[in-house]
Amino acid sequence: MSQHVAVDNALSPHGGKLVYRVVEDKEKAKELAKKAKVRIPVRGQIARECISIAYGFFSPLEGFMGAKDVDSVVHNMTLSSGYVWSIPIVFDMSEEEIEKYGIAIGDSVLFTYKDQPLAIFDVEEMFVYDKIAMAKHVYGTDDEKHPGVKRTYDYKAKFLGGKVTLINPPVFNPPFDRFWYPPAESRMQFMKNGWTKVVAHQTRNVPHTGHEWLMKGAWFAANADAVLVSCVVGEKRKGDYIDECIVLGQAALREYGYFREDVHMTSMILWDMRYAGPREAVFHAIVRKNLGCTHHMFGRDHAGVGDYYPTYGAHEIFKGLPDLGIKSVLTKEWYYCPVCAGIVYEGFDGHKKQKQKFSGTVIRSIIQQGVKPTRLIFRPEVFDTVMMCAEKYGFGSPFVNDNYLENRNPVFTIPPMEV
Amino acid sequence: MSNGDVKLTISLWVGPEREEALKKANMLEIPELQEAFAGLKRLRVPITYEQAQKLKEVYPSAKIDTSSTQTVELLPRECLDKIFAMVIEKKSVNVIPDLLKSLGK
């Protein structure tokens, strides 16, 4: 088993160096594209991961993992260098595709997305890996009903490892453009704001008051300068909140004064959730560390699905890991207490028998009916924002449906590039 | 008991705006209106299984749950808004026959 490598500088990126593999010079980008052996269209997940790698969200990764890294991540939860890493980041192809494109080790290939050049991928190795073992170790189960396991089983037969260079940066479309802060920019923003302690809040939700207090509680617990709301934007499933509701609903908390302007920032990461529970919590911590956060809040059922993981599995996993250079703020539940007539924390409220928990089903039902709830449940401006997004972006619904999946406003566009 | 005898309900959330309308209709004290969560109330409108089936013909997305919650779920917002408006107009929760009539059922 490889040794874990602790990170001693809290503000350093994971692995010590912030990766930046974006070619900004258009002519140079075109030259690289022209030199590429072949064009390979990639799906959304791979495009998003290319962008995340190139901008350093996944530092120290510079590309898709090779066999040594994958094996080390699967079995030891570290890269082969020893740095903690919990989720394999892989590029997969079928034997037929490899043959069709004539790909060999040492080739540079051009990844395209939606018919436009996106990135150069340097093929350093090709390998097969036992997908069942990968699933069992990363997800703790080989049950294909688990969406992360299914994603793993859906990978094609071969994995290709190698560096990725973004040659055609994405243009983010409104309303997402104002929430796009790659690591170098978020770090710059923190510096401008004079923030040295920032606690990250991971979310795929519109914020009800329970979420708001989770964030405020984490801010107190970390004695932080600010909260970074880091929204996960990626592959959507029917019934999820639409992305616009999430980013604009979160931003509304600041815009309407529920957080002071100088203690709150909403941003997003491009990531297709794996629902790996505790392991995904570790991954989230690393990505937010790369964004410049010093703390990460973890509540119940972090990145979980079904009943595959213990409620507070994300709290336990960090106990066996070295200092990652980002501190975990472990929090339990905030709920409504009718005796206190407010939102209270499980850790200090003495009226547990009367507690009224925030139930996802109830919250969704309230939103579905479009009935403005009491301000103890939703801030009215947040609720209005959600309803506005439903009309403007969601084809009448704040939840993902077939129409949204087919016709949604794309998060980003890869601009035309003549090669 | 046949399905036709099953008594179901449609749940309507009642926030401050709807509560005000119920207050004006003098309906705040009816047993079908109960505290649900953090000051938000729930109004239960009775519906039979047969009526629910007819409603589902108009709104196929509706889900009739006779096994656990005994409710009709996933009705579109326009339908729920209409039911609430009829409750206020009639000052009664027994509005489903009129609703079905208005829908041509």
Automatic annotation (TrEMBL), chain A:
SUPFAM superfamilies: Nucleotidylyl transferase, PUA domain-like
Enzyme Commission (EC) number: 2.7.7.4
Keywords, in A-Z order: ATP-binding, Nucleotide-binding, Nucleotidyltransferase, Transferase
Secretion signal span: none
Record carries keyword NADP: no
InterPro entries with a match to the protein in the record: ATP-Sase_PUA-like_dom, PUA-like_sf, Rossmann-like_a/b/a_fold, Sulfurylase_cat_dom, Sulphate_adenylyltransferase
Pathway: Sulfur metabolism; hydrogen sulfide biosynthesis; sulfite from sulfate: step 1/3
CDD domains (alphabetical): ATPS (cd00517)
An MF annotation (GO) of this entry: ATP binding
Chain ranges of the ATP-sulfurylase PUA-like domain: 12-168
Catalytic activity line of the entry: sulfate + ATP + H(+) = adenosine 5'-phosphosulfate + diphosphate
Domain Sulphate adenylyltransferase catalytic intervals: 178-387
Family matches, as Gene3D superfamilies: HUPs, Sulfate adenylyltransferase
Enzyme class, broadest EC rank: transferase
One GO BP: sulfate assimilation
Family membership noted in the UniProt record: Belongs to the sulfate adenylyltransferase family.
Name of the protein described by the UniProt record: sulfate adenylyltransferase
Native source organism of the sequence: Thermodesulfobium narugense
From TrEMBL, chain B:
Matching InterPro entries: DUF6955
Source organism per UniProt: Thermodesulfobium narugense
Pfam families (UniProt xref): DUF6955
Protein name: Uncharacterized protein
Highest taxon, organism lineage: Bacteria
